[in-house]
Amino acid sequence: MTEVSFTGLDHAALARRTRRWGWLQYAGYRQAAEKPFFWTAFVTALGNPVLYLVAMGLGLGSIVDADVEGVRYLWFVAPGLLVATVVSTGAQFGTWPIFAGFKWQRFYYSAHAAPIEPWQLPLGEGVAISVRLLVQAALFWLVAWAFGAWPSASSLWIVPIAMLAAMAMFAPLMAYAATLEEEGLQFTFVQRLVVMPMFLFAGTLFPLASMPIYLQWIGWLSPMWHGTQLARVASYGLAVPGWLLAVHIVFLVACVVGGLWVAAHTFTRRLVR
Length: 273
Prior knowledge:
By secondary structure, the chain is mostly helical. The protein is built from eleven helices and no strands. The protein has helices at residues 11-33, 38-63, 73-93, 96-103, 107-113, 120-146, 158-177, 186-201, 213-220, 223-236, 242-271. The protein is globular. 41% of the residues are buried. Mean pLDDT is 86; it is low at 1-6.
């Protein structure tokens, strides 16, 4: 006889639905878990662009007399600041929160006790964080628009571009964080030796080509630089060859897909043993 719950729902049907859509259900759970921090995240998402644009766009921009790559410095730096800020958020969420799900709060184990497959958990994490990153990028865009940082309506494409670049940072870090069983200095090294050099040496504040050739590789390997270049194309029509435009897009998509694929395997190894 078919087992029926008190709400009249078939348990077997619920299990089948979870096996199919568990990643989406888990994404909803992760977003609900962030509700207590909504106002903190909202104020931070508004405050960061104001501080960045006042300090770098208007403050430093008033000192820079010449145009940069043929445009005002504010137009040049705003796409880089937006992408760098959102990518930094992706890096933060790809480290300690993932580790906490295995080590301290252990919510991955409780989720796996349901009919959710291990590979659905990193996918659900990716969906949940992508929504947050998209909202953060949109708020930054609005603040920058108030500062006159966007010369054309096509700059709206920067919002999904920034989200894609941030996911290209988040997904590989999530896969790495899922392999760690003890806390140490690993994530501190990631912030100090990976994220910060990207911000300083990936073309955020000045063109990458103006740096010595032995430092330009930092940008070439950085989701931040690839995203920034795409954002500048969308904002003020930065001249980029078609083949290089394709490289930027393929690099970011490969980081996202590859990171999620590796994360699916690391989550499975961690939970099924």
